[in-house]
Design a protein that fits this description.
InterPro entries: cNMP-bd_dom, cNMP-bd_dom_sf, RmlC-like_jellyroll. It holds the Pfam family cNMP_binding. There is one protein chain. By secondary structure, the protein is mainly α. The protein is 58% helix and 11% strand. The chain has 10 helices and 6 strands. The chain has a 3-stranded antiparallel beta sheet with strand order 4-1-6. Strands 3-2-5 form a 3-stranded antiparallel beta sheet. The longest helix is centred in the N-terminal third of the chain and has 53 residues. It starts with 15 loop residues before the first helix and ends in a 7-residue tail after the last helix.
């Protein structure tokens, strides 16, 4: 209370120590109040500067979208992205702030900031922005089938995820929209991986396209691809089931097998329709 009132509630005294104490209290109150006002001014100035920067960016985007005559759906998506970016980043580009730091320090900062996001890796249906090659550790892949069933598999060192991106790069005619992930990948332990961004992968495929026609590369990609391995497992089960049905003969007929046969056909058809690996055919 004494500091907040600058010492005005102190009673006068003739003792020199109490006078000095009163002077110190009054000056401390003035100093703290001055610092508070200064911090508030600095904070308001920073907020107004960021807000002004965002307003200018939104104005430039609106002008550009109007000049290019973008449809209303795309304009809405751009505005939504800018609002999310502002709410998440507060108008700051964190990668721009740390770009001059040493590489090891940048890596540690990115790992600390994005650790929760890295644990999720890739979710089914999200755009695939990079291929991830596992060096150490393990991932678990889960893919939704019909009637709430989920196909899962474990990926270890040497495996990779995001092979939909390779098909996207080699597709002709080329489509700018990134492909959607066909499965969800989650880290089940501490994992080290090498990531290859979409633009870098596209550069490689454009300049070394003849390399991807190699039969050995096709077989390797099929073997280490989680999508191909899951698809192959379902079709092997389907083929084995059909073989057992043929070897039993027409005498033994179980009604339940009809439903099982139909379900396996659905799974096989689903995986056949979802294969994004046209370049591996």
């Amino acid at each position: 209370m004494t500091l907040s009132t600058f010492g005005n509630d102190l009673e006068p005294t003739s003792h020199w120590l109490e006078v000095i104490f009163s002077i110190i209290i009054v000056l401390s109150g003035l100093l703290l109040f001055t610092l508070l006002i200064g911090n508030i001014q600095v904070f308001l100035h920073a907020v107004m500067a960021k807000k002004r920067k965002m307003q200018l960016r939104c104005r430039d985007l609106e002008w550009w979208m109007k000049r290019r005559q973008l449809p209303s759906s795309l304009r809405h998506r751009v505005r939504h992205f800018e609002r999310q970016r502002w709410a998440t980043m507060g108008g700051e580009d964190e990668m721009e702030l740390i770009k001059d730091l040493p590489q090891g320090l940048r890596r540690d900062i990115k790992r600390y900031l994005c650790l929760d996001l890295i644990k999720k890796i890739i979710r089914e249906g999200d755009p695939v922005q990079r291929m991830i090659f596992i060096v150490h550790g393990h991932l678990q892949s889960s893919q939704k089938l019909s009637k709430g069933m989920v196909a899962t598999c474990k990926l270890g060192p040497g495996n990779f995820v995001g092979d939909e991106l390779l098909s996207w790069c080699l597709r002709r005619p080329f489509v700018d929209r990134l492909p959607a992930s066909s499965a969800t990948f989650v880290c089940i332990e501490a994992t080290e991986a090498f990531a290859l961004d979409a633009n870098h992968l596209r550069y490689i495929t454009d300049h070394f396209r003849y390399k991807f026609a190699n039969e050995k590369l096709k077989r390797t990609a099929r073997y280490y691809s989680s999508n191909w391995r899951t698809w192959a497992a379902v079709n092997i089960q389907f083929a084995w089931h059909r073989y057992k049905m043929r070897t039993r003969g027409p005498v033994i007929q179980v009604k339940v097998t009809g439903d099982s046969d139909r379900r396996l056909r659905q799974y096989a058809a689903m995986f056949l329709s979802l294969r994004p690996h046209d370049h591996l055919e």
